[in-house]
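Box 3.1 — From sequence to structure: V-type proton ATPase subunit G
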Amino acid sequence: MLASQSQGIQQLLQAEKRAKDKLDEAKKRKGKRLKQAKEEAMAEIEQYRMQKEKEFREKQSLIMGSQSNLSVEIDEQTAGKIRNLTGNYKESLENVMKQLLGMVCDLKPEIHRNYRVTD
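Predicted structure (token representation):
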């Protein structure tokens, strides 16, 4: 009877060891699956991020390209206006100087009309 109890205990210990081994194996598989799922999710996130960055760069280049064209056009218009103003300045400079010198040099001394002689 003692031998059969000892044998029963041995069977229980072996069954417990097999159950523990199966649990350990299941935990390892679960860990591997979680790690694989995490890696797949990270790869998917990276792919999505790269796609969105590409779309952003395309939109940015489209907008910046049109802005640079606009900037060049504004620069050309500004340069044209500056040339125009410089030309007008050079054309008017001599006439303005003649008028100014004429007003300064050609003085006609006269008594102001409101001047009253006081005795």
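Summary of the box: Residues 2-105 form the longest helix (104 residues).
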